[in-house]
Amino acid sequence: MILEQQFSRSVLVTGGAGFIGSNFLRAVCTSQDYQDVKFTCIDKLSYVSDNTTKFIDDLLKEDNFEFIKADISEEYDLLYRLIVEQELFTDVIHFAAESSVDRSFEDPLFFTKNNVLAAQNLLECVRLIGNKRGDPHHVKFIHISTDEVYGEQRTNESAAENTLLSPSNPYSASKGAIDLIINAYIKSFQLFAVLIRSNNVYGYHQYPEKIIPMTLYSLCHRQPIRIHGDGHNKRRYLFIDDFVSAVLTVWNKSEPYEIYNVGSDDEVTNIDMVNLIIRQYKQWKPYSTIPPITYVTDRKFNDDRYDVDFTKIRRLGWKPQTTLQQGLDKVIRS
Ligand SMILES: NC(=O)c1ccc[n+]([C@@H]2O[C@H](COP(=O)([O-])OP(=O)(O)OC[C@H]3O[C@@H](n4cnc5c(N)ncnc54)[C@H](O)[C@@H]3O)[C@@H](O)[C@H]2O)c1
Ligand SMILES: C[C@H]1O[C@H](OP(=O)(O)OP(=O)(O)OC[C@H]2O[C@@H](n3ccc(=O)[nH]c3=O)[C@H](O)[C@@H]2O)[C@H](O)[C@@H](O)C1=O
After folding, report:
1. Which domain of life is it from (predicted)?
2. What is the Å distance from ligand 1's center to 21 Cα?
3. pTM to 2 decimal places
């Protein structure tokens, strides 16, 4: 490992131009706790950031940050040069994925090609640098998965980390496939890989196709607020700062080969979520004209609810700090 003098660790952060990745990078690059860590963001740039680096432009001036534009599902040779030949990284934190369930129904094959190959190109490079250095743990691989790989849970049912995977849509199937491939790389090659499966995350810079930013965008632009089906489906929500904290906790404290659910106790039906946002928005802008709620065709399959048991990560000392009301207030007023 040929680390630049002042850095103790060098982390490849994939997908860092998007919603969660950009919030993660801002948290670490501006923190005194990580001034001795180099963060390299690699991202193809997509619609979620208007094909720009707008959510991380302010970080480009930081001494411990740099950006590389690349599609890691297609540019294996570049990854090989950076990770295996130049030995630039001690850790990989893999956020990059096409993340929209709705879009995955429209182009399932693209989701599989993009999400699976992006992850496995990285895994191959992590495996090969481990071979080269005679240590499969030479590079630590933190993978951001999702609660959707378990499929839906019935009322009073929750998924533990050893629950069998049962994804229901092309997005979650691509994520479940990656989890299974990572499991095989752990068993066959003893990679230092750790998986994080989270409930819904919301916060700053989330693209307005997801329900919370969609509702806010509709309120601000006086457009109909679109509810899929009858709005009975439920989700559990985690504020972005709490999820970033969970990723940092796992990255810094986890043993290899572990899986961590990252959950929330804030479960809300979609229609209740929309009405909650409207209520809080009106407190902020009391004279706003509130657009209508429009019920549109439901998804081809819409998981009823996701409920994960997150006792395990609590044992690492993590728990959510932000209530749904507090988090929504921060997003509405941002
Ligand atoms: N948002 C949530 O509620 C949530 C919950 C659980 C898990 N996740 C997971 O967290 C991760 C980040 O999600 P997000 O909501 O920030 O997504 P996002 O869509 O906002 O950002 C994803 C980023 O990854 C990049 N990317 C995608 N494919 C790439 C490729 N082949 N090469 C390089 N860059 C690529 C995109 O350009 C984008 O900047 C994803 O892996 C997602 O599955 C998200
Ligand atoms: C853990 C995953 O969270 C996100 O996926 P999910 O599909 O649950 O998020 P959405 O915000 O797209 O949908 C939540 C819920 O709201 C309904 N809805 C959405 C958008 C809209 O315009 N109207 C709606 O009614 C939708 O049908 C759902 O029931 C995240 O995107 C993903 O990456 C995750 O991993």
Report:
1. Eukaryota
2. 7
3. 0.98
